[in-house]
Amino acid sequence: MTQTKDSIYASPLADIEAFKFDAKVVDVFPDMIQRSVPGYQAIIAAIGLLAGRFARPDSVCYDLGCSLGAATFSMLQHIDAPNCRIVAVDNSAAMVSRFHERLQKDAPNANVQIRCEDIRDITIENASVVVLNFTLQFIPVEDRLAFLRKIQQGLLPGGLLILSEKLCFDDPRQQDLQTDMHHAFKRAQGYSDLEISQKRSALENVLIPETFAAHQGRLLEAGFNSAEVWFQYFNFASILALK
Ligand SMILES: Nc1ncnc2c1ncn2[C@@H]1O[C@H](C[S@+](CC[C@H]([NH3+])C(=O)[O-])CC(=O)[O-])[C@@H](O)[C@H]1O
Ligand SMILES: O=C(O)C(=O)Cc1ccccc1
User: For residue 72, what are the contacts with CB-CB under 8 A and spacing of at least 6?
Assistant: First the structure.
């Protein structure tokens, strides 16, 4: 499939609106996330492998903040547990509708339910795998603990949460270095300094990163038995939390 190149922030904008997952973003999203999140493709591939290992028969795998369903498509390639279904949820109508079209075209018989809802409002039950791939960072910080508790309670014993997030760092030199290296990554992917700085403004107060220690502490407080990083590339990391 031909991919539309992300040029949303390429020209100077008089007024930079808060970042939204609207139709304009949906059109360029695969290119945008690929060129903005170091290691994105490696994480998507690993989500498939992990789901292959953790998906249980007669259970549910959740893809929360699914966007265009990249994690769902990866899980579908590896899940062989009988009667295991995927519930994919996103509150952007534009994302959900595009994901629907793709699923109809590429995997019409797959056992996937796509729902347009706020992930804080859904019921989670009988889950063997829950994926939060760069989604929790968009949930208000004060809602994160209750939401993770709900996920922990909906997971079966031995279940897995995959939590991928943009991180920040307590040490200011580390924070500056990792931010600079992320920007160097984006430059190397073809984004201009203007694109990088305008997108950064749009994401302010929208994408709220936390430290790994904050995530780990909250996951344990939510009832998970352990939470460790399995992947990190500059300020982007993915965590495995085990029930
Ligand atoms: N409260 C919410 N309820 C439901 N969806 C939400 C909410 N808040 C944000 N979203 C959705 O979370 C997604 C975050 S993108 C995930 C990438 C995907 N996981 C991937 O593996 O390609 C990450 C990024 O763009 O950095 C968007 O589609 C939002 O609409
Ligand atoms: O682009 C960035 O700087 C990011 O932090 C990641 C991202 C990727 C796609 C949508 C929103 C944020």
Answer: 63, 66, 86, 88, 99, 103, 112
Residue 223, number of CB atoms within 10 A of its CB = 14
- Beta strands (DSSP E) in the chain are 60-64, 85-90, 112-116, 127-133, 155-166, 226-233, 236-242
What's the predicted TM-score (pTM) here?
Answer: 0.98
Q: Which CATH superfamily is domain 40-168+206-242 in?
A: Vaccinia Virus protein VP39 (3.40.50.150)
Cα–Cα distance between 86 and 68 in angstroms, integer? 14
**143/140 Cα distance (integer angstroms):** 5
| Residue of 7, 33, 164 to mutate, ligand 2, most atoms within 8 A of C-beta | 33
pLDDT per residue over 55-99, tens digit each?
999 999 999 999 999 999 999 999 999 999 999 999 999 999 999
Spacing, Cα 154 to ligand 1 middle (Å): 20
